[in-house]
Structure formats: C-alpha cells, structure tokens
Fold these 3 entries.
Entry 1:
Amino acid sequence: MISFLVTLPIMSMLVQKNHFLNVLLYLETFSIMILFMAILTSKVTNIGSHFLLVFMTFSACEAAMGLGLLVTILRTTGNDYISASHILKY
C-alpha cells in the first residue's frame, strides 16, 4: 500500500507533464509520502526525530525554490507550460 502511495505521484508526473505547477505538486506529494513513510518507520525502529526535521527542512526549501522558479517562468514566458521553458536555457 505504501509503495503504491509513493509510486503514484511519480507515475502521474511522468504521464501528465504539461504544466510546471502540476510537476511541483506531484513532487510535493512525493516528498510528503516519503515523510509519512519515515514517520512510520521511525515509530517502529526508534530512530531519532532529527532525520525527520532535516527532511522537512529540505522539503520546505525544495518547495520555496520550486515556487521561485515557477514565478520566474511565469514572468518570462507568460505561462507555465514545460514546453515553453526552452527560453530559460541560456
């Protein structure tokens, strides 16, 4: 069941990759599912919560960088299509 929850965002991202915002949402879903699995395994194996805190920090940084990139793409191209991001390749 948990492996299905992890592979679902990956498969959805591979199938429907038109909008950059959809890709960001799938990546956030993927990171939340990994965090959920880490919480479940930390309860079973008594791993410290430091790893979870570091993972949540990196996940928040990834979200902030993704939103910054989305704003840059929207200001540059006027849309969030992945096919229109060829303008950002300097």
Note: The chain has one domain: 2-88.
Entry 2:
Amino acid sequence: MSINFTKAIVNRLQQEIADIEDKSMNEKNKKEKAQSKINQLQRDMKLSQSHNDLSNKMSRINKLNEEIKTINRVQADLSKQLVTKKASLKQHLAKEPQ
C-alpha cells in the first residue's frame, strides 16, 4: 500500500476512535444524570403523602432504570467498536514506514 493511502486510513481510524470516545463519554454522562434523578426521586418518595404521587415516582424510576439498561448496552457496543478500531489502527501503524 502507498504511504498516502495508509496515512488516510490511519487518520480516518483516529477520527473514528475520537468519535466513539466522545459518544461513550456522552452516554456515561447520560447514565450519571439518570442515576442522579433516580436518587432524587427515591429521596422525594420518603416525603410523598399520596398514593398517586408515589406511583408516579415509581413509574419514573422504572423508566430511568430502563434508560440506564439501554445506555449500558450502547456503552458495551461502543466499547467493542473501540477495541476493533484500536486494533485496526495498531495494525495499520505497524505497516506504516517510519
């Protein structure tokens, strides 16, 4: 392969890795916010007087827990992609003449 072709692949892989890392960080932040909301709702539940209020908060907690499960799956997928891209980058960097 030509040097320019290899450099283009390396640059593309580096950009893709950076994008995946950004997505992963965004998902991590979403997860932290959801967990924080759950904690707040759990504290608020202790102060709730009505059955309706408790029911609403429990529903919200369940939705947030589902959101966290989805985020965990997305993070696992991003992690797999990151490992693959980094391995490919390492392989291409080894081919590149020094």
Note: The chain has one domain: 3-92.
Entry 3:
Amino acid sequence: MNRFEGLTKPSTLTAGSAFLLGGILDLVLLTVSDPFSEIVQTPLYAVRSVLLLVGGLLLVLALISVYERRAKKIGPFGFSAVIVAGAGTILISGLFWAQAFLYPTLGRVAPELLDGLVRPGSLSFGLLLTAAVFGVGWALVGIAMLRVRVYQFTPAALILLGGLVSLLPTNTLGQAVLGIGLVLLAFSPSYRKHEGPQRHGDVAPHPQQQP
C-alpha cells in the first residue's frame, strides 16, 4: 500500500460530493432573476462557493491518489492528462476562492463588473483559460481511464463528459457531472485492496506441516 492508498476513496468521494452539491446549488441560483451582483451576496451563493472551493482543493489530492494507484497501467498518456487536469484544478480553485471571498465585495463596490456591463479583457481571458485547461484536462483523464480499462466504464465516461461540459466558462454544470463521476469512482471495485488472483509463476507459501 502506498502512502496515498488510504486517501483515495475519502478524497475522491468528498470532492465529488462537494462538486455535485455545488453544481446543483448553482443550477438553483440560475433560476433567480436578480442581478448577479446581488446573487453573490446571498447565503446560498456563499454555501455554493465554499462547497466548490473545498471540492477543488480535495480534487487535487484525489487526482494524485487515483494516479498513484494505477500509475504503471495509465502510462505516459495518463501522466500527461494528470498534469493538465492538475493545472486546471489549481486554476479553477483560484476562481472558486474569488467567488467565495471576492465576488461578494465586488457585488457591492463594482456591480457592473459582475453583471457583465463592464468586462475587462484580462478577466474574460482568465475565465476562458481556466475553463479550457480544466475541461480539457479532465476530459483527458476520462479518456485515459477508458483506455486502460482498470476503472468501470460509467464513472470514467462521466468524468470525460464532465470535462467536456466544463469547457463552457462560468458554467458549473460540468462540475456537477464530474462530481457524479467521482462519487461513482469512489465506490468502483478498482478501489478494493485485493488486486485479483496471483500472477502466473508466483509461488504460494506452503502451509505449515502439522507435527
């Protein structure tokens, strides 16, 4: 058992649950007709943002744990996918931090910025870059899981789909789909400690002879 073995299931399950709940709350907030600058000051938005921030931070640990467990089988393509997904997760965690702690203040002092009346080019570029790196990275992780076939098809496919949907900036529907995939992955049989029958050629220990 490597040092990440015990962290794989709890980190994946918690990150997935946080992304799923945060995505659901985000969809609920989309039904509110108030300006976005007012929505970001509500308790529901605060809960949503903190959930996604916690999910983003734990997602980094879950990504490392999942990769460490199957590093040899995932291979170079999987390693590249993990690097891109890790970079995207760090970027989106920074966005979630801003949404949790900075956006409520901007809603009071600069509402035109959040309501889209004024959108500096650097902010638009940053949002597009974050969505692109995060979405492409997790789509690649899903593809890598499907290629090596050591994970169940459904969670791997949902992780791939979640990455693709996450390519849409400022849309957390992709994170909700990704969250479902992570929750299912946490309960995947691949997390069992038993890795299957002994390899051919392994010599089983002889039972002790009775005196």
Note: Confidence is low (pLDDT under 50) at residues 191-211.
